[in-house]
Sequence to fold (463 residues):
Amino acid sequence: MPVPVVVTTRSGGPRSPAFAVAMVLVAVLAGGALFMSGYSVGRDQGLEPGAPADEQAAWRPFWDVYSAIVNRYPLEKIDRKTLIEGAIRGLVDSVDDPYSAYLSPEDFDQTIRDITGEFEGIGAEIGTVDGRGNSVDCGTFGPDCQLVVIAPLDGSPAEDAGLKPGDVILAVDGSTLDGLTPDQARDRIRGKAGTEVVLRIRRYDPPAGGPAADATASPAPDGSPAPDGSTGPTRVVVDEFDVTIVRAKVTRREVTSRELAGGTVGYVRLAGFSDAGASAFEAAVQAHVDAGIKKLVIDLRGNPGGFLTDAHRVASVFIESGPVYWQEAADGSQIETDASGGGSATDESIQVVLLIDRGTASASEIVAGALQDRGRATLVGETSFGKGTVQEWIGLEELGGVRLTVWKWLTPDKRWIHHVGITPDVAVDVPDDTPRNEDPVLDRALEILGASATSLRALLPAA
Fold:
């Protein structure tokens, strides 16, 4: 599961096998992904070194070393930009905060683009399965860890190329994925819009993750027994082929909306917090309310966060006035941020159940904490990730940028959930071997709303 990461504000502007291909910026910096509680982007703030004499004396050893390298290092000339980048990286690393880091120009620009909900690639939700086609959380690809297409995004190059849910990706541009991590595989598939990538596809019947695959083990493609020793096939390879896909700029699908329980319950899943995602979320909830639906399920499971301003927008859909969260600065001062008012579901006759899990982080936790403290939703699922800080992205022109923790955030009742998480009102344990087509958390939510249980396969982050 992509480990959760970060939060920030903008100036101006249960163990999931899926990994964030588009959200490389919103999860915890471990395993190559980050979570964000929202974040802010600051540009060229022009901060100057301190002028007081004590500051000048404190920095003298640094300048002595810098001068020695520039003037006396004999092996090769060291580029000044390289030295400055190294100094900035060391300065930020010395804070020893997993959510603060220096980013090269390329990484800084790419992560900013990713957070906005747009990326360059094939446009598919992807995940990992074992040799039998069951969902699995695995670290490196091999016979019992395979990259699978969960679903191509609507109108994406992946959809145009004919990729289908359950297709296993064996190789990229002729190179096998064996031994690669999910992040490394992602990087091979992604690339500049307009460039081509060749994927080797193996198609099964039933597809990976299908009902039969969940019921019985199947032999590996080479005929050897499955890890549990069984040899009776449940999946049959119906085709293996190469497909050439032209990469494009893809907008990540952050919102999924539908009616459940015979049209009596509105279901809205939010996968990230961007401007486009917040707008789509507002529209989806508005559509359910306009249809006369008085029971809503909001799904924030696996949502790693995003822009702080968009978390505020989402919470304000359900909270008319009063605090959504508090910000606490380095000096201990606190600032209250209230709901914007006018949300489509602020009427308390509208029942709301909010789904959370261990992958619910940062901005998602701001929303969950706000709705819980303000009594606007019943939280169902697992304790959330626990990310209670806000990061600002500071642009440094040609030197890239810095992601720096600048605030703590607190719930309306001033709870700091950092490293603790938000405890659901109704806990639901989801065993690791739960079949893909079953969703006990959603079923429990529907029971709370007095609706009949149903099954709904959770959608995973886009690739």
About this structure: Residues 133 and 373 are 41 Å apart (CA to CA). DSSP finds ten helices and 22 strands in the chain.
